[in-house]
Amino acid sequence: MGEKVFMQGNAALAESAIRAGCRFFFGYPITPSSELPEYYAAKAPQENLVFVQAETEVAAFNMIAGVASTGKRVMTGTSGPGFSLGMEAMSYMSAAGLPAVVVNVMRPGPADGDILAAQGDYFQAVKGGGHGDYNIIVLAPYSVQETADLTVKAFELAFKYRNPVVILSDAMLAKMMESLELPERITPNENYDWTMTGAKGRKHNVITTCGDGPIQWENYNLALQKKYKKIADNEQRWESYQVEDAEIIMVAFGSVARIALGAMKKARAEGMKVGIIRPITLWPFPQKAFVGLDQQDFFVTELNAGQMVEDVKLSVKDKERVSFYGRMGGMTPTPNELYEKLCELYRK
Amino acid sequence: MKVIYKRPPVLTEAYFKYCGGCGHGIVNKLIAEIIEEKNWLEKTIIVWPIGCSVYADQYFNTDSICALHGRAPALGTGIKRALPENLVIVYQGDGDLVSEGFSEIMHSAIRGEKFSVVFINNAIYGMTGGQMAPTTLLDQKTTTSPYGRKEEESGAPVNMAELISQIKGCYYSERVAVNTPQNILATKRAIKKAFEYQMEGKGLSFVEVLSPCPTGWKMKPTKALEWLGAEMMKIYPLGVFKNPEVAK
Fold this sequence. Notes:
The complex is a heterodimer of chains A (348) and B (248). By secondary structure, chain A is an alpha/beta fold. Chain A has helices at 9-19, 35-47, 57-68, 80-85, 87-96, 122-126, 144-161, 171-175, 214-234, 254-269, 308-315, 335-347, and strands at 4-8, 24-27, 50-53, 74-78, 101-106, 137-139, 165-170, 177-181, 206-207, 238-241, 248-251, 274-279, 281-283, 297-302, 322-326. In chain A, helix 1 (9-19) packs parallel to helix 2 (35-47) and helix 3 (57-68) runs parallel beside helix 5. Chain A is globular and about 70 Å long. The model of chain A has no long low-confidence stretch (mean pLDDT 97). Chain B is built from ten helices and seven strands. In chain B, helix 1 packs across helix 7.
């Protein structure tokens, strides 16, 4: 089994990426994600890593596209405004089939906003954010342990589908310390038939996102959509807590799911039949988790004005059964606050 | 019979899509010849820009990746850092390098990235239909400067080869032109030097090529060559601005 340590979320993420064979990190410092570049910078000599502090996130996201094109594992980490600057390259990497991993440690926006935990970038990560029809695989951990595990998973999925993957963390997860078991060290395969490595012993490879005619580009898009369908069919991940007998099912992801668990425990102790569905992949959204749950009410809670709630409504039979309570990030609800909301729902 | 001129095998059989009289085709061919002569096909990766050379991946038997507009130096940074032994060529036009990607090229120079940049300066946006570039000459008419470029509105033309030579991480910077046979040969020598410096592990090597755009300039190809020699060269003098031989 892996090494047991007590670590901060961002540091555990960086360490897990290194253990997953990601030797390359390009990034620009921004709170609350700066421990990611700092960790890579500090470990570079002894771990034989390549770290570049990019001049902008625009550059950082394109640098990782460059490394990904060579078949090597690469990552950047950023937050809010930096994630916005990376959107052009997210669209590019999606079209080009470049398997890079991007960490967005969410903080409250819009604009400069604040630096505490938030989930207002859900739409941006899950629905695109850049131009064109594309999808990014989005993984949302809720603990430091799961941050480490999903970091390893992120690289696997990125290369399996030749698609960028976003790890959607938040300031609370990133800054808290927890004990965890670190993943095993692996040496990943870097030999693929599509990479930019020089045309040695093979025909030359081309990576381009420039359409060469409307029919050709529609076909290119249709091939992408086919891939997205396959990902949506195969990669939905979630965790369910006590939904079997539940009358009200809370839906929460990331650090808010921890608060929801506290509220659920209290409600259960009071005899209320409450369960939780915790989406782990935000794209593809785990619609399968809601299959057969036609008699229950759903209570969605997020650190935003209501974003994932739209995907919950698309996943259930009767959207009238879905209610929402959120705080805008920075300010987070307490377990009692959510419990009170549950009581109100229960009384209805 | 001895073959003294042929299509370099580094090029594919595809026809160039460049307009008649355009300089891109000449520079593409020179790059192919150098790769051929040096036997570097197997280690070459070319990063193409958005601009008139956007389809150049179709012309080369090397690995090719087409970047987002302006981001070729950032993409090149990632590739060269991942594969330091390979020849990474970053090919850019003036809209790409001087405007959209000004930050990326300057910071690549600041970091002393060890790739080569071939910069095509034709004083106009060709692909989008003849708009003003940061390299457009004063009083030059384009579709977005229909009364001529005015310094008080749009600033003056940017001399990239001189500017980038001031950055410590730039190892070599030269401006050449493809308007005469002699200048074309000098262009080939400059680009070859840039590639050689890269393979010796030196810092950023930068070659600015003054290149005709008869379509964008609304001139016959012969007139375009004259205008390049008479007008562009007044603002953009040919020469070596960072000379590693002298620096030694």
